[in-house]
Fold this protein.
Amino acid sequence: MNDKAYNPFETAQNQFDNAADLLDLDTETRDLLRNPIREYSFIIPVRMDDGRKKVFRGFRVQHNDARGPAKGGIRFHPQETIDTVRALAMWMTWKTAVIGLPLGGGKGGVICDPHNLSTNEQEQLCRGWVQQIVKNIGPYTDVPAPDIMTSAQHMLWMLDEYEKIVGERQPGFITGKPVGMGGSLGRKEATGYGVMIAVREALKELSINIENTRASLQGFGNVSQNAIELYLQMGGTVTCVSCWDQDDSKSYAFYKKDGIDLKELQAITDPFGGINKSKAKELKYDLLPGESWLEQDVDILVPAALENQITTENVKQISKQVRIIAEGANGPTTPAADKLIKDRNIFIIPDLLANAGGVTCSYFEQVQSNMNYFWEKDEVLSKLDLKMTSAFIDVSDFAKKNKLNMRDATYVISVDRVAQACRDRGWV
Ligand code: NAD
């Protein structure tokens, strides 16, 4: 089987069908869960700085809210499609369910390129998005968050517009807000720390002492840097990281046999996670081709950059030493490559579980915002550890009991929880 041209919604539906078969789900429940419950597609007219009106297209998809308000980010992207939004909304439903958060799954987007929009135009776009969908979202209905090319500032404009329309302060309407304006401490660390909490639990299962392990990561952005921070604190060694190089339009890997120094590398990294090559060379890092992150003789691989990175083309390059792949990124392994990994003795921590620390902390932000009472960072991070650890144990126990791999077990648990909620409500 080859890696097919990528339609994310088709992939998401195939993954669902696989879980539905394993669960022997009835036709009605399949019909309900295979597609979003609600979809909104709308235009957003924006007065541009030159006085012209320009019309953008916006989306919000609520895949399922049987377990609680829909939750999911809003992307600004020139190639945004309704199918991408549908797929991401469905994955949010499963992600919130596997962690046991009382939330459903949603996603939104606008077809636009923020690089070509002034600050004022971006603000108008954010306010326009809220104006068009305000009747169908809210703190107890559907709670948006940032995603690709949307930031804390965009969230604040959206919150402000929402509060103007409803006439009251409702900080729980949206997450990813700046700390001090309704944001949560610990959100920055949450996804990367969550990845390594899951790795810690996997190592315990495999009876491997973390201090004897080495890791290689793809990416050096938010997820990767925070994952490395916790992994180093727990005693591991990172020998390789990679990143995209804007000047050369290609990726590079940075290798140090005795282990990278996180702070040293952070000091020569731009805000987009790009490492300065010449400064890295001065610091005695070996500069390797981008793909080499995958070929290292390490115990743990963490793809934490993009989707579609481990493919049938490169899966054979993974070293025999690798025991764990923890998917920090969304969808980094193609379904075809996944089949080949299943045949090897590699423990996969699937994206829905591995990177769920982010949405878990967004849920904490929502809770704190609704209470208007904010926790200290330690409290947020210890609650994160508890949620991630218990979700990992649930999945791993289920996988062992039912002789499934971690990915199938994650899907079966989450689809089953959502299906049960739909049945309990009398929807099917
Ligand atoms: P980021 O933008 O902070 O960092 C991305 C990193 O990947 C950068 O270092 C960039 O240079 C690198 N990169 C880009 N293309 C590359 C390539 N071809 N080869 C090697 N490196 C490359 O992004 P992030 O927030 O760290 O997110 C990383 C992944 O994790 C994405 O798939 C994202 O959807 C997923 N994710 C993020 C969060 C979160 O809370 N940030 C939560 C869940 C999932």
User: Anything to note?
Assistant: The chain has a mean pLDDT of 96.
